[in-house]
Structures
1.
Amino acid sequence: MQTIKIGVVTTSDRASAGIYEDISGVAIINVMDEFLLNAKEYEYRCIPDVQSTIESTLKELSDEFKCDLIVTTGGTGPALRDVTTEATLAVCSKILDGFGEQMRAVSLKYVPTAILSRQTAGIRGNSLIVNLPGKPKSIKECLEAVFPAIPYCIDLIGGAYMVANEEVIKAFRPKGA
Amino acid sequence: MQTIKIGVVTTSDRASAGIYEDISGVAIINVMDEFLLNAKEYEYRCIPDVQSTIESTLKELSDEFKCDLIVTTGGTGPALRDVTTEATLAVCSKILDGFGEQMRAVSLKYVPTAILSRQTAGIRGNSLIVNLPGKPKSIKECLEAVFPAIPYCIDLIGGAYMVANEEVIKAFRPKGA
Amino acid sequence: MQTIKIGVVTTSDRASAGIYEDISGVAIINVMDEFLLNAKEYEYRCIPDVQSTIESTLKELSDEFKCDLIVTTGGTGPALRDVTTEATLAVCSKILDGFGEQMRAVSLKYVPTAILSRQTAGIRGNSLIVNLPGKPKSIKECLEAVFPAIPYCIDLIGGAYMVANEEVIKAFRPKGA
């Protein structure tokens, strides 16, 4: 089994300043540990809500660290400091609208304010970048919804071969693919 | 309770030329009167389907009149003269795809042509701009679907504090927000 | 009944090189023959996954051949060679997000990887351009989902008047339209 490189990017002015603990980044790592049987190498960053910083972090994790998957948390709402979506759109060559649509559809079962989320996903080089919400509970709900499509997506863009922990979640690969 | 400033923009060549009455703008005001307990100050415009005119109207309502919410009706279809979406995309710094997705999903329960709508929503300064359909019945259906998220959205962008008429509709604000 | 001009564009490096047969283009023609009572004039192209070639083909089918409807198959996934979406976005003056949303929602009933599809639709001149998936089965599922809105869309952009075969599928036109 190949080792999967996963970038985890928490964008938060307060967490990056040490004002509170980053429980969201931890939540992502916990879910990935649970969902994937492969060995995992995490590159973790906790950075302020500054678009240029987020962009350079995403580029570094994709271009230099060759992450197969980069997951962000925070910064996808309508507020002025929410710029993770902008950074993601700026560094990706392809945008996968279906991720945002499905994550909003899932969150909408819990809260009507799900429509305020600008979460998206996209491709940069051989990396899939996915924006997740800020709250650990919502992170898990969203990852459960989109994870089944992630291993095949990463196959298609030339990343490492992910093996899902089928006792917890199933990855889907089309027959003959 | 704060006074809410609401811009209502009907884009229609014929209504703006006085060829028929603008029942859509009236429908929006009626729904807002029903949904919000705050005092309301409406800025109403009925203008032709000209992108530059729509853009300058949206800018004026946001930048000069400081509207918390700007609601448009008309001009979001596939026809050549439908340019309200274009104007909205041009003047907003953030686009909230979830509004369009949810409004289309709701309209799709009634008509399969809902997928032709290019309704969207976005942020300009401290204003939320939302495109609604042209027909009064569809206006109400769409507002019922997205209104619960609007007060919290306007909190996040620094607008006035909306108080929903909970006998008619509930606004949702996350706990601790 | 007017004759409907339909462009059918298969984008596939392998099919265009004759390495395998283009069953997807055939599938589209079969569905259109089944759905539409009008006489049909097909303009069929099988071309490689090269963005500039796809763009010039779409322009030719719209601007010169005056197709009412142009349907593509293939090239909407996340892989590097998938550029049909990019070409569609580049040549259209209006994008109709609702088509992509609904096609992904329909495909999602069958496969969780539906969120990887970047299928979209848009308007160029008097032509509606719709991206379909690559597989015949998925092509039919998607066309069944979006076809009911297509005749009215083409009315709105000044194309020919489509007559659906109501024993198979219903087209929807709003009353008074």
Note: The radius of gyration of chain C is 15 Å.
2.
Amino acid sequence: MRFFNEHVEDIKIAYIGGGSRGWARGFMSDLAKEPALSGTVSLYDIDENAAYDNEIIGNKIMSQAKVMTDWKFKTITSLQETLTGAHFVIISILPGTLYEMESDVHAPEKYEIYQSVGDTVGPGGAIRAARTIPMYVTIANTIKEYSPSAWVISYTNPMSICVRTLYRIFPAIKAFGCCHEVFGTQALLQKMIKDRYDIKVQDRNDIKINVLGINHFTWIDRASYKNTDLLPVYREFCQKYKEEGFISEETVHATYNPELGANKVKFDLFLRYGLIAAAGDRHLAEFCPGKWYLDDKDPYPVWKFARTPVSKRMDSYQKQLADTKSYVLGEREFKIAETGEEGVRQIKALAGLGSFITNVNLPNTGQMPDMPLGVIVETNALFQADSVTPVHAGKLPVPVQSLVMRHIYNQETLVEAAIKKDCELAFTAFINDPLVTLSLSDADRLYKEMLQNTSKYLWR
Amino acid sequence: MRFFNEHVEDIKIAYIGGGSRGWARGFMSDLAKEPALSGTVSLYDIDENAAYDNEIIGNKIMSQAKVMTDWKFKTITSLQETLTGAHFVIISILPGTLYEMESDVHAPEKYEIYQSVGDTVGPGGAIRAARTIPMYVTIANTIKEYSPSAWVISYTNPMSICVRTLYRIFPAIKAFGCCHEVFGTQALLQKMIKDRYDIKVQDRNDIKINVLGINHFTWIDRASYKNTDLLPVYREFCQKYKEEGFISEETVHATYNPELGANKVKFDLFLRYGLIAAAGDRHLAEFCPGKWYLDDKDPYPVWKFARTPVSKRMDSYQKQLADTKSYVLGEREFKIAETGEEGVRQIKALAGLGSFITNVNLPNTGQMPDMPLGVIVETNALFQADSVTPVHAGKLPVPVQSLVMRHIYNQETLVEAAIKKDCELAFTAFINDPLVTLSLSDADRLYKEMLQNTSKYLWR
Amino acid sequence: MRFFNEHVEDIKIAYIGGGSRGWARGFMSDLAKEPALSGTVSLYDIDENAAYDNEIIGNKIMSQAKVMTDWKFKTITSLQETLTGAHFVIISILPGTLYEMESDVHAPEKYEIYQSVGDTVGPGGAIRAARTIPMYVTIANTIKEYSPSAWVISYTNPMSICVRTLYRIFPAIKAFGCCHEVFGTQALLQKMIKDRYDIKVQDRNDIKINVLGINHFTWIDRASYKNTDLLPVYREFCQKYKEEGFISEETVHATYNPELGANKVKFDLFLRYGLIAAAGDRHLAEFCPGKWYLDDKDPYPVWKFARTPVSKRMDSYQKQLADTKSYVLGEREFKIAETGEEGVRQIKALAGLGSFITNVNLPNTGQMPDMPLGVIVETNALFQADSVTPVHAGKLPVPVQSLVMRHIYNQETLVEAAIKKDCELAFTAFINDPLVTLSLSDADRLYKEMLQNTSKYLWR
Amino acid sequence: MRFFNEHVEDIKIAYIGGGSRGWARGFMSDLAKEPALSGTVSLYDIDENAAYDNEIIGNKIMSQAKVMTDWKFKTITSLQETLTGAHFVIISILPGTLYEMESDVHAPEKYEIYQSVGDTVGPGGAIRAARTIPMYVTIANTIKEYSPSAWVISYTNPMSICVRTLYRIFPAIKAFGCCHEVFGTQALLQKMIKDRYDIKVQDRNDIKINVLGINHFTWIDRASYKNTDLLPVYREFCQKYKEEGFISEETVHATYNPELGANKVKFDLFLRYGLIAAAGDRHLAEFCPGKWYLDDKDPYPVWKFARTPVSKRMDSYQKQLADTKSYVLGEREFKIAETGEEGVRQIKALAGLGSFITNVNLPNTGQMPDMPLGVIVETNALFQADSVTPVHAGKLPVPVQSLVMRHIYNQETLVEAAIKKDCELAFTAFINDPLVTLSLSDADRLYKEMLQNTSKYLWR
């Protein structure tokens, strides 16, 4: 890695899950738009063909006329070799396939447990954790041996559990987890300002926020735009839209995706707890007791958000396959567009080009003083040359702390159980999940069925 | 208070709730059996006649031939005067009447929420807390002014919330909360030893235990008899009786009270979590998610414990009234018998006569290092002259910690809400209770109804 | 305070110590250079005439042709009135006079205790604390009553003790303490880069640092310029200059002030502890055991820094008086120049104009997780609209932690003692100071003499 | 180990340092007086002949007519074999010889540093630590492999550092450190009661105390006899004897050993800090700044305690050699007498025979909430079957906390340095010791000389 004249060259990035059709291509796109960085991206994937496809697509992107930088993409079939010499490691894997995910999300329905996403918490999140943790154990051990000083950016869900596993296995790792849900909440605040004051805030980064909590159940307890305290404004906004919900003009059109929701869960939570819940309603709903927002198979009539069935993911997967083919064959040109993700911006700062503050998932070293040390929390952090330093986030109000801690305890238990290969211990987390409002015997039955459905990926 | 020749004389005890027909008379009985202590007990009660009755009964007890000590009982109608000059304060009050308790326990049944006791947690516990905290605020303020250096022993439920209120209002108070549920678990271990080894352990204090958790949801993570580690023995015991339950021979007769249960909840919890839950099954069940042990109106068929309806308490109350009359009129002599409670033994140690270790409820100053400071925890403590020092209890396993912390957060919220007179804040604790598995709108309806039923005693 | 078109108008600033000839005028100068802010500064000083002089000087400054903003300066003779309605409060007072300071610095010399500044720690710092704390108690109480939501910037030494007192008296205060010593260390790193790479770093803010410790005994454990880790560079720099010291070319000329030193103490500390001590050598020396760097009346021959005698301050004071007169009379025009202080920049961010990170003194809420909560630590913090949020600073290595904690314990004791008016308690801090290497009887004699010399300003 | 009828048989004890002439024989003597225990003691010593001598002496003791129990003593020449199968491990070793100790104690005198014992803190303690830690590393590793579930009782100085090393190397070890200094302070309180009330307290255990701090610098903040609070009595006692000191009648005779002192240091510390310092004056003096109590080569004229020269230890050693010979040859019979040590009593409780409370050295798990976790603190603990549970000790007042923490930081540094074999790191502890009031260059010279004198035993 060479720093030269405000450029950084010869950066080596290892991309684990390099066959990814969504995240990996977005990342390539963001790289293509950043003239200050260049180097090599090694693509590793258990689906080698998918990685090869991305190698072709990535190299084609870099040869597009308007691209002012140069990255080489190369498929590597050994994890060890992929990691060796890496300055940065990206992890965005799908743990198992959509068939396992189908069980995660839909198997609990026969017990009237309805999940809106099913990849973070709830029975689906617990089972997904059970198959993801062993993969992350392997990755962490390999990083420890082959690229111990690399910066590791993790995108996989369940986020907190993945990052926790990395640190459990290799405590000196320099890793953090990234997610865009909070950015979406900043965007909502932009729209609120438009709604209230008819002012267009250009950049979501102009909305200053204090972030605290855990991934997908993150909270904002201070927000300002210039000198305006946004919390009183948000209270009015909640009051105004608590019944009908709020869907911004841009998104209200034909293309409106009901999974994005109308923020009614967020408004309800604010009016109860006084803090802005900073994730999409689909995610937030899953962290709360099942009767609150996910009591019905279709929560839309009451709460105005739709669940995401796995069949929809499967359709989208088929479409991606077709797209891939046409990109690879050169039938279509990949369209470079900003994703809104921050991975490239973070790499830039870590490489010594500038500094900025954003929210990421890190072990608690005191930034949330009421949380146990070591658990993964999401707060603001300062990115600078070779360092990510949490900003002190403070404390959640006790009622919110309780809702959050319940999931942290479950995450700790799931990681411990997977490392110890202890199914009974993991079951104590399963029955402690707020969506699992079952008798012990029903819970036991469901747990065993779901484990069976994912058994191919479980610890052995 | 004079210490003389291994006796302590002129002890002044203030008894708040001095009209109590159960606890107060047990206490008198224990005093009568302890030759080393003597003095005066001031009886204060909002039901003055009840206090007068106890004054007569207490003084009659002391005049029984076999009593080798001397205590004077005297009704005092002002709380201030009762407390002035007291060396010890006992608080055992009934917050409200059995009519309020009827609502606490039975109002939630229309939403299929079944409580077995309804005085500690659950919707009933929350509402009982709401009317008890203001009474304890008054008591704490009066102690602060009139007997700041007295030792205060609290017996009222919800225990943790009462003791927490005392310390919130008067942080320098010397108070602790006492409960016999753990003693009952020691007794179960005695019976287990009989069952397994056919050895009769004379004294429950010979069963050495480490106690940690919160009142009525207390845990034992180490137990020994002589050099025998009792945890493996208990595991076998649980396996043996997990289906049928265990009812000891003494209690199996006609007089068997199904409310005492057959320990099936305790066995189930041990087999899941590896720790001995140290309270009666009726209490334990209420701290767990509602579907686990209280899913049915009658839990007996599955879990072999019965719920205690308030009608039964009302019957018992009528009987106590009749007994009282006959004691007062001298138609019957009150029978002095050891209660198994430790109040008098504690007073003796605090007065400088010996030292011993027992479990009590105290603010956490580090005895449970994973718990927030200040919350009320139940652990062993060393009683000596003018001091109660917690024994370091250690940490709960994470899955148990999660179950316990949920209640601690609720307790913190309920105390804060009652002090701030904030009904909406208290509602966040209400809906976070594991028995309240309702939609937000149903929870709201139930809460308002229950608050209405107890409105006479609420903060204003 | 009105926010309008990237300007903030009608700001009300209360300046306590408004007669100050150094800090107050620097502040006026910085205000004059900032076009985005305008408003009123109320000047309060126990020396009313000094405040009147500054009122005249300040208003004259604002009328200079090149000044593009507008501030009114006004003397107010009541502290209450000064504070009422203030958005910002500046405190820069001289506790007592230079006569008291003469005793602080020079009285200990008869016991061979040599202080280089004598205003922070050492026997002089302890006595200065004793007379400053009561003044800060008064100020804190008045702020609590008259401007509880104002932001308070404190410049007075002993810094940590002053800020601690503000929070002890009024825990909800929004106060922080500012000091430029760390900026000077950033400047040294700029010069180091020039010396090593012949690169001129334009802005000290381009040197990114992590700051931790306490005021005047602050440390840097991470430093970078672009992608260069500066710690290995600093190690070489220390090795190169550890004997002769390093004095930069700009400062080496005739005007060189030997009090600024040649960084030999800093180099010695780095080579022992591996961290950059981030204050002038004169300050650092006083925090270490007396035999290390202040064993001789003149430390220059060995350590290449000079002590600052109070006589020098008196001379400078006379010159300031003369300058003041000529400014007031309009004989000379006050020269507006950037001071390098950050007060105005901080006010700007707090008012909602931008955000930035700098080092300030704040109560520890977890930013230094090994330090007791509540004590004043100096770390980076994020300044934004109406908020100052510490950046997580981490832990000092144990040997440095020990040196620092000794002073923190003394600070805690001095504040406690002054509030309790307990001279004997304050004496335990006095004898625990690393410069006080005396027998108990000598220490007692010196302490009493020094207290006597400052008795006019002591608590009563 | 068999528990039978209130006896425990077949106990296996491994005694490391089994050739010890003082501690080992005292232990044998205590074993001989305890009828409830019997078994085997394996004696291991690098001086094998010394172990053989003790084997003979120990077996002779057990054959004395009045001894009602049976222990076999056997020399084992391999540490591994000694530990294999042990239920209890005793460690009482002399790290190095008296020649190394001569350097520890007397080498610093040329720099006017006078130590009274020189085995715990001060320059001597630091160097002794440097040669002891590697030995304890070896012992800890061997225990980890050969007797991981044994209880380990450590008597070696520097106590805190030895116990800390055991836990650093083998965190699951069941070890504690024992010392009789606090017992001596209880005895002083017995004498105080005699002096004040003319009452003879039979048993020092009737003096109830709360113990907190570190070994040899331990403090008592609560003390009672029956219902009498002893702290006000102790204050009067200090006032009465602060000038002349207090030497009890029993000890005042010809045999009076001036090293035991007259408690003037203890009285002075109480009058400054309000807590009872609970160790002999010789020890306490070494923990305080050098100028306080050890400014003179002979502290007796002012402070009435004498230093212990190593020559005296050498004389005593010669006498022990002669005694040994006569015991071994059977010329004299070893006189069985209670030592006042508690090792045998502790073994009895750990084996399941009864329970009691005493003060021991353990890692801080929260019993001293203001201390860092993991450091070794001395507090009360509850001894029961297979468990030692600290009693919550609470906090030291800040000024005492500062004096104590300085040593804890040094201990942490010395252990870290020895494990890392880092002489420069250990030097930072050396110069931070309160007795080392030297310039950095003198300190460096002394350190190197002392290290050289002990080089045979240093880490390599």
Note: The longest strand of chain B covers residues 7-16.
3.
Amino acid sequence: MPSVLELTEGVLQGDTTLLARAITLVESTHQDHQQKSYEIIENCLSKQTQSIRVGITGVPGVGKSTFIESLGTSMTALGKKVAVLAVDPTSSLSRGSILGDKTRMPLLANDSLAFIRPSPSGDSLGGVARKTRESIVLCEAAGFDVVLIETVGVGQSETAVHSMVDFFLLLKLAGAGDELQGIKRGIMEMADAVVINKADGANLKRALRAKSDFERALHLYPPKENSWSPRVLTCSALENRGITEIWDLIEDYVKLTGENSSFQKKRKSQNKYWFLQTVERLLTQGFYQNSEVKKEISDMTRKVEINEISPFRAAEELLTAYRRQLK
Amino acid sequence: MPSVLELTEGVLQGDTTLLARAITLVESTHQDHQQKSYEIIENCLSKQTQSIRVGITGVPGVGKSTFIESLGTSMTALGKKVAVLAVDPTSSLSRGSILGDKTRMPLLANDSLAFIRPSPSGDSLGGVARKTRESIVLCEAAGFDVVLIETVGVGQSETAVHSMVDFFLLLKLAGAGDELQGIKRGIMEMADAVVINKADGANLKRALRAKSDFERALHLYPPKENSWSPRVLTCSALENRGITEIWDLIEDYVKLTGENSSFQKKRKSQNKYWFLQTVERLLTQGFYQNSEVKKEISDMTRKVEINEISPFRAAEELLTAYRRQLK
């Protein structure tokens, strides 16, 4: 394994082989690897970049891979460097990533301006999300202009991805009947654009009807603080139509939010969120590794299990033992 | 407000007015109220009960209210006392609970053997789930034989409810086309029974077809550790058909898992989970209330926001300051 210095220099020079190895350190569960990955990230942090982070979500079957392939190649055609990352907490459960698989995006996978990385595995959404967030910093330091972050349209992974991107895109199908679900689950509220995919052939008419349905639905929300009005577009990733319009829209967004400073404001608040998430993770780790906690916890657990003590009382007592030990 | 002693005695005597007030303490964000609620729970904990906790999930539109009304009244008809609680983290976002609303269950709401409590509000799923778990203990101490816990079929609230019930029931519609989603999201894996609702009129044939589809799908999973084979049933909550069969099934489950001790084993592991959740919550709370943390955190946050320091380094430094202060 190359040294921290070699990896840092490799990343900063845009060497994708060393970038991939640095991300492997980020994804490792070994403490030594994690420490090294933090050093690399720290070294990369000061590099000023102008990247754009785009989150893409949609339920299975909506055509995410084809869409990302189409959007990605339209950007590399403009000379932009595109990284594709993923947050898929289900991939660790199913023991195989369903996202980020290079065979799903054959054109991008063979594009020298593109870099595709499957979803990291992890025992929790928090772990998976953290690894992806750290990989974003490395990709940007390696000179990628655009980072696309894909997620499955189920569960809280969308909220996690929303908290690490500049622009959040919701991919939909016409007539899938899940409009209400998107609204109920708060996804619609997070979207900066709703894109209705597979607007081709016999489906075109329905797609246009869905477009006005979604536009009406978006009107129900109060205006966003950054003064951006979410837009609804249709596209056919398969026929490669409507794709450049999406990229134009994202650039409009970057321009508007750059001018009114909300772009930087959002990044700042995301950094803060990430900081607090890390604090809480380390705090918990330190707690469970504490010798007094290690000593007491199994006896406490036994008592809790048989209702001899309530979980609350037991938790309070364990914390008291922990704090006494720290002194 | 009655005293802790009065509330405890009221709960233990099955007084639903005092039970409701005790739950109000559980749901309160005031520290004083929380402390009181812990004392009441502690007092109630030693009471031996034979209750059954049933989780019920299903996407909006599947007919959960009518189903719970139908299942609940079939149980009160047998003389059983039924409590209905809910975990709906979206209710705090939409500023109004969509679950547990008494007008949705007019028969149960007017049934002297039933107790309905809407979903508590909270700033997070964790908070909402904790409050409901604590309310379960109180309902059981008050003599309720069955506690039905309803949740929306979206997001991680299902996992939370699954972690607090003995039996987990997934409510479905025929031909809703979301079979794959249930599988992908791991809900099917958690289900002890899949019930296809609205199996009536013109829908009956489709419901029977869906039944064999789900049975086939369930066969794909490895046998459960507790040796229970999840079953698929059809019912019409509206016409009140197939409901007693569901209750029979739940009793079969309780019998089987009681005999092979997995019922108690599951409760124990849920108690443990609850204990560790509480530990982590209190640990985090204590951290943010620490004077050194309070002093340092805003300066740290500012540096993190402008990328002067990485979130990881900042988190490490803040924890060092915290531990130094504790000594």
Note: The CA atoms of residues 31 and 37 of chain A lie 10 Å apart.
